[in-house]
Amino acid sequence: MARIITCVGCGQEKQYYARESCSTCYERWYHNGKPEGGPPQPKSNDECRAMGRKTIVFDRDKRMEEYRKLTRDDGLPREIAAQKMGISDRTVSRYEKALRESAESPTRGGST
Ligand SMILES: [Zn+2]
Predict the structure, then answer these.
(1) Which secondary structure element, helix H or strand E, spans residue 4, and what is its range?
(2) 46 C-alpha vs ligand 1 centroid, how far in Å?
(3) Does pLDDT of 16 surpass 90?
(4) Spatial distance between the Cα atoms of 6 and 12, rounded to a whole number of angstroms
């Protein structure tokens, strides 16, 4: 029963979720303590999306680097590193895979 509405939160044509909003905006509204005026406006949809993506990538790189340091530089076992960082086994395997891949295909230049 998909219903397309112009979302009151982001102004985009989206699938109706609740309160004249898309699910994203509804959740934003909900997590903001259900303000009377409806969902708080995103800065702009594109800006919002771009920022979100950047933050996620940045954060992941940072955490992966932290994980790499713990397991490689400090020589900690995976489980301990995972515990220290509060990450799940699944995240650990993802980091391991990414680290292996980057080790197998090192970026060119720089090293002697
Ligand atoms: Zn919306």
Answers:
(1) strand 4-6
(2) 12
(3) yes
(4) 5
State the amino acid at position 37 in one-letter form.
Answer: G
Distance 70 CA to ligand 1 centre (A): 40
Residue spans per domain, the chain: 1-42, 45-104
What is the 38 CA–ligand 1 centroid distance (Å)?
A: 11
Q: What confidence tens digit (pLDDT) does each residue in 54-108 have? A: 555 567 788 899 999 999 999 999 999 999 999 999 999 999 999 998 887 766 6
Residues with beta carbon < 5 A to ion ligand 1?
Answer: 7, 9-10, 22, 25
* pTM beyond cutoff 0.85: no
- For residues 78-93, one letter each, b for 16 or more C-beta atoms within 10 angstroms of the residue's C-beta and e for the rest, the string is eeebbeeeebeeebbe
| Distance (Å, whole) CA 11 – CA 45 | 9
> Could you tell me the sign of the dihedral formed by the alpha carbons of 38, 9, 52, 84, in that order?
positive
β-bridge partners, 34: none
